[in-house]
Write a structure and sequence with these properties.
Helix content: over 70%
Distance between the termini: 37 Å
Strand content: under 5%
Largest sheet: none
Shape: globular
Structural class: mainly alpha
Number of helices: 8
Length: about 180
């Protein structure tokens, strides 16, 4: 349990950019500690996105529960947000005072770009196991493992989201039901 809590504290301490930016660290820690496989992690993202609350807290709750039951779920959920809470309180006055300082502005530009890179990495890692049967470990497997149904759902869901802009829950439930019938 101590390892679990230390890992989640580390994620909370070193992640800037919100829940989506935590996904690469959550993945590395979950897979590195053999708490989840790549495929289970991709499923966890879908489940966490479809349940109420921030995605990273939902993921921490699930992993905490899986590894240490109810107490693990509660403590993992609390510990992942604790560092950000403490830092936000400690830095709020400083950032308010110096938010227009060139060094602070430059730091945030770099941090935003880094967060985009982290999120893009997560997308690629999840796509690798979600859009290709059996995953993809080399370019030669791209065509042989290409999952046409998954790609079709990706394209249709993207177009619907872009056009209708409804709450994500509608798409998750709708495409979840459709998936039951086509797989």
């Amino acid at each position: 349990m101590i390892k679990l809590l230390l890992e989640f504290f580390k994620i909370g301490l070193f992640t800037y950019g919100g829940g989506l930016a935590m996904i690469p660290l959550l993945r590395d820690i979950s897979i590195g500690n053999h708490w989840l496989t790549d495929s289970q992690f991709a499923d966890l993202i879908a489940i966490s996105q479809s349940t109420p609350g921030p995605i990273a807290i939902n993921m921490a709750t699930f992993i905490g529960y899986r590894e240490a039951s109810v107490l693990g779920a509660i403590l993992a959920s609390i510990i992942i947000v604790t560092p950000a809470f403490i830092l936000a309180i400690a830095l709020s006055k400083v950032l308010a005072k110096y938010r227009t300082h060139p060094v602070v502005v430059a730091a945030f530009v770099g941090l935003k770009a880094t967060v985009i890179g982290l999120i893009a990495t997560s997308i690629i890692q999840v796509a690798r196991v979600s859009l290709f049967d059996g995953g993809v470990d080399s370019p030669s497997e791209l065509l042989s493992n290409f999952d046409y149904k998954a790609w079709a759902l990706l394209v249709v869901s993207y177009l619907l989201i872009k056009k209708t802009q409804k709450h994500p829950l509608y798409y998750i439930l709708g495409f979840g039901i459709i998936s039951i019938f086509i797989w």
